[in-house]
């Protein structure tokens, strides 16, 4: 969640998270003040999530944790296409 604006369908497909779990997590992050939620003005069926100031303050921490994960779990990837390929193989 390092981009300023997130669209739910993009995050769901990239992460491979079940939609109900993603919805619960986004709701919790919104209720806790880390995200704002609004309908996309160009497509009312879509939702845009934006980091609040409180959410922005976590960017450095998330980046540190991501770098730690890359160091200690070198066989993981940040390439969404690779994540999807692995999931399809049952990995």
TrEMBL record:
InterPro entries membership: HTH_HxlR (IPR002577), WH-like_DNA-bd_sf (IPR036388), WH_DNA-bd_sf (IPR036390)
GO MF assignments: DNA binding
Origin superkingdom: Bacteria
Matching PROSITE patterns: HTH_HXLR
Domain HTH hxlR-type residues, every copy: 1-77
Keyword Repeat recorded: no
Pfam families given in the database record: HxlR
Keywords: DNA-binding, Transcription, Transcription regulation
UniProt name for this protein: HxlR-like helix-turn-helix
């Amino acid at each position: 969640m390092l981009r300023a604006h997130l669209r739910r369908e993009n995050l769901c497909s990239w992460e491979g998270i079940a939609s109900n779990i993603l919805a619960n997590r986004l709701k919790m992050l919104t209720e806790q003040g880390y995200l704002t939620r609004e309908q996309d003005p160009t497509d009312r069926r879509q939702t845009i999530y934006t980091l609040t100031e409180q959410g922005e303050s976590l960017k450095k921490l998330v980046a540190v944790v991501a770098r730690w994960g890359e160091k200690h779990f070198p066989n993981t990837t940040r390439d969404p296409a690779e994540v999807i390929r692995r999931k399809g193989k049952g990995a």
